[in-house]
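Q: Hi! New to this. If I give you a protein sequence and the SMILES for zinc ion, can you show me the bound structure?
A: Yes, paste them in.
Q: Okay, here:
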Amino acid sequence: MRGSDTGRLPPPEEEEMTTKDEQRHMSLVAELGCAVCRRMGYEGTPAELHHPRAGTGAGRRASHMDVIPLCPEHHRGKTGVHGLGTKGFPKHWGYGEAELLEDTRAELKKLIGLRIR
Ligand SMILES: [Zn+2]
Ligand SMILES: [Zn+2]
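A: Thanks. Here is the predicted structure of the protein with zinc ion bound:
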């Protein structure tokens, strides 16, 4: 294991066990399109799901309800969250996973009018 002080994230996630609620949530999130592209004014870029793992607190399982939609470039590419890492990404873009997660929740609320925890 590398030290977390590099801000490096592990490689993109493998599929994990999900509940039906989580699956429905995740497919809705994917429909929103890439959150980084959205901030640049391009809505609905086909997206993969990113699970933020940093700063969720000790002992808390990374939740499938806390996923961020990112296109392949902004997920795994050179300017993506895995490519840049948790420190490099905010430096490059001026915002990080927390902001993207907030965007995602706000967009979901607009999309389905549902209360997201
Ligand atoms: Zn993108
Ligand atoms: Zn990811």
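A: Residues 34, 36-37, 45, 70-71, 73-74 surround zinc ion (ligand 1) (CB under 6 Å). Let me know if you'd like me to explain how to read the tokens.
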